[in-house]
Amino acid sequence: MSKKISIVIPCYNEQENVAAIAAAVKEQFDTVDILKKYDYDIIFMDNASKDATRERIREIAAKDKHIKAIFNAKNFGQFNSPYYGMLQSDGDATMLMAADFQDPPEMIAKYVAGWEEGYKIVIGIKEHSTDGSFIYALRCLYYKMIRKFSQVDQIEHFTGFGLYDKAFIEVLRKLDDPTPFLRGIVAELGFKRKEIMYDQPKRRAGKTSNNLYTLYDAAMLSFTSYTKVGLRLATFAGAIFAALSMIVALIYLAMKLIWWDRFPAGSAPMLIGMLFMGSVQTFFIGLLGEYVLSINQRVMKRPLVVEEERVNFDEPADSVSSAYDDKMK
């Protein structure tokens, strides 16, 4: 029996791309020598698209049983949905890639070749990107900062695009993390990996759902999950500013006692000091709030996603979930 590769493709409002990416993946397995010996399936994880994405997926799934789909009841975010899709795969290896062609299908063969060499994880590292210069500069700054401050050696310019052996998928299943950050998990818990450089092309069609807020959300998830620097910075800054405030207060008191009639304390220094200290406190309260939010999401133990429908799966969602729960017990 031939081995199987599961291709997980998260999508949100990708009606112009889903049929094309499915055809491109199928072409790779039909024409590339190294892939012809493998069975495969394509799992679309639709995150409650508002356009005709689901209708397009149903159309192509009706014609090809290799194509499967899981439709979420609502949008569960850019991290939970892909991660959940990987957990539902049953291939000997699972590959995660985007629906917009920014993860080139031609890389599938390279990843499988690395997997055949014995690597449990084979990932793509963006060497060049079509992002604007400002966004790319922000990404580079973020990667350098998180890599410097994290206890885990984070992977720069890695989006999750790659191939993962079923042994690593089992590791993911046992984590039971309601707010998973795959990029950090690969760096922290992954097996020995092979990294392959690639140039990220432009989107084939449609509009990206990423914006400054989603990029900030991703940055803060990794920052609060893999660094202590925010908490330590708040502690050290509080101690330093408290000491400086005490020194300044003592100097003012001494000067007032020595030059009682000639030294007016004035309200300007007090007002400036209060505003400065207030802004510092507000900043660190917000930073601490990000850590508390991360803790709160994990403590609530909510499901990664809630499914609305499955297409071309042998078992319904309930029976799959029950079998998985029994296995974990």
3D architecture notes:
Strands 7-5-6-4-1-2-3-8 form an eight-stranded mixed β-sheet, with helices on both faces. The relative contact order is 0.14. With 329 residues, the chain is an alpha/beta fold. Helix 10 (229-258) packs antiparallel against helix 11. Mean pLDDT is 82; it is low at 318-329. It has twelve helices and eight strands.
Summarize the model shown:
The protein is α/β, with parallel strands linked by helices and 329 residues long. The protein contains twelve helices and eight strands. α10 packs antiparallel against α11.
Q: Alpha-carbon distance between the termini?
A: 30 Å
Helix run count: 12
- How much strand content do the residues show? 15-25%
Based on Cα principal axes, name the global outline: elongated
Biggest sheet details: 8 strands, mixed
Number of DSSP strands? 8
Average of per-residue pLDDT values: 82
Query: What's the helical proportion of residues?
Result: 40-55%
Would you identify the regions where 5 or more consecutive residues have pLDDT less than 50?
Answer: 318-329
Class per helix and strand makeup:
alpha/beta
**Strand/helix succession:** EHHEHEHEHEHEHHEHHHEH
Task: Provide the fold topology.
Blueprint: E1 4-11, H1 18-31, H2 33-36, E2 39-46, H3 53-63, E3 67-72, H4 77-87, E4 93-96, H5 107-116, E5 121-128, H6 133-149, E6 162-165, H7 166-175, H8 182-189, E7 193-199, H9 212-226, H10 229-258, H11 268-300, E8 307-311, H12 317-328
Parallel strand pairs: 1-2, 1-4, 2-3, 5-7
Antiparallel strand pairs: 3-8, 4-6, 5-6
Helix pairs in contact: 10-11
